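Consortium newsletter contribution from the modelling node. Members have asked for a concrete example of what our holo predictions look like. Here is one, prepared for the arginine complex that several groups have been discussing at recent meetings.
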Amino acid sequence: MATLWQKEYQVDDLVHRFTVGNDYLLDRRLVAADCAGSLAHATMLHSIGVISAAELDELRAGLLEIVADHERNAFEIKPQDEDCHTAIENRLTERFPEAGAKIHTGRSRNDQVLTATRIYLRAALLELMRHTISAAHAFLDLASTHQNTPMPGRTHLQTAMPSSVGLWAASFVDALLDDLSLLQTALDLADRSPLGAAASYGVPLPLDRELTARLLGFASVHGNVLAVNNSRGKIEAIALDAADSAVSTVSKAAVDLILFSLPEFGYFELPVEMCTGSSIMPQKKNPDVLELTRARAGTLSGIAVQLKNAVRNLPSGYNRDLQETKEPMLRGMDIACGVMEIMAETVRRLRVNPEALVRACTPELFATDEAFALVQQGVPFREAYRRVAANLDAVASADPVAALARRTATGTPGNLGLDDLRSRLEGVASARTQREAYVTAALTALFGREAAVLGGR
Ligand code: ARG
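And here is the predicted structure:
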C-alpha cells in the first residue's frame, strides 16, 4: 500500500526502514484512539458542510469495522503503511473511495498523532491514578489497623526513636497524595484537544475545534496551534515524571519491606503467593516483586530522561524527532501501571508481626524520650541531652505504646490524622471516577457502542 505522500519517485528502501523503525508496531496501541479521533474529525467535517451525511455514515461504518477487527487482532499495520494513521486511511479509502478521500481534509498526521496520543495517555493516566489510589488505600488501611503498633523509627538505618507501623504506612499515603496531584496536573494538560492544529499552523477552513474536543470527551481545546505541536513529548514527559514520582514512592516502601521482612527482622511477612522460589534452595521465599519494583523505578526514571532528550532543543513546529517520544511514553506508562498495581496488592496482603516489632523496640530507642522527660522537669534540653548521653547504659526500656501517645503534634505517631488522609484520598478518587465516566460516555456516544477499548488501553 502506498504512503499518503507518494510521489512519482520511489523513496529509498533504506530510508523507509530507517524512518519507520518500529513505529508501525507501536502504533497498534493507538489504533482505537486514532479511530475515535478520525470519527470525531469526520463528524465535524459534516457539521461544516465538507462531507455529506451519507459519507459520514460510510466513514463511521468503516471506522467501526476497523475497531472490531482490531479488537480481534485482525487489523494489520504493515511496515509499508508507515503508521496506523496511513493504515486506517488506506483501509477507509479501499472500502469507500470517495468518503475515504475526504477524511484527511483539514488535518495533518501531526495533529492526528497528537490526538491519538492524548486519548491514549489520558486513559493510561486514569488507569495509573486508579492503581495509585488503590495503593494509597492499602497503605491507609494498614495504618488504621496498626495505628499504635510500635516500630523502631530509624535514621541512617540505625534505630532512632519510638515510631509505629501507623506512621510508616501513613507516610506513603501522604506521599502518594502528592504524587496524585502531579498525575492530576499531567492529566489536565493531556486532556485538551489538539485536533485542528494540523501541521502546526491551522488550515484555511472554519474547523469547529470545540465540537471535536467535546465529541472526544476532552476538557477543553488546546489553543495555539503551534504550541500544540510543540507540546508533543513535553506533556508525555510531564506524565512520565509524575509516574516516576509515584513509582519511586512505592519503591521506597519496597526497599523497606525487603529489609524488614528478612527473618532477621521479621516485622513483616509477605504471603507465599506473592513470593518466588529458588531453583536450587528449597527453603527460599524471595521478594522478587519488591526487587523488580525497585529496579523498574530506576528504569522508568531513565525512560523519562530518554523522552525529554528526544525533544530538547527542537525548533518550533513538527520535527520527525517527535516520533521517538512514542515508545518511551508507552513503555513508561506500562511500567508504572504494572508496578503500582502489584504494589497495591502486596500491601493489601502484607502480614504484620506485632511481637517482633515490640521486641525490636530496644532501650536505646528511648534515650531521647528520657532527655525530654528531664526537659519537662525544667532542665534545659542541652543539659538533659548531656546527662542522658553520659549514662546511656542506664536508659531503661519503656512502654512503646505510651511513648507514641505522648507525641501529640500534628502528623506525629500519636496524631496521624488518618481521617484527613482518608477524606483527601476519597476526594481524589471521586474526581478520577467522574473524569473517567465522562470520557467513557463521550467515546461511547461517538461510536454508538460500548467503548471499552476506545481509549486505547
Ligand atoms: N509516525 C509519525 C510520528 O509519530 C506520524 C507523523 C508524521 N508526520 C510527518 N510530518 N512526517 O510522528
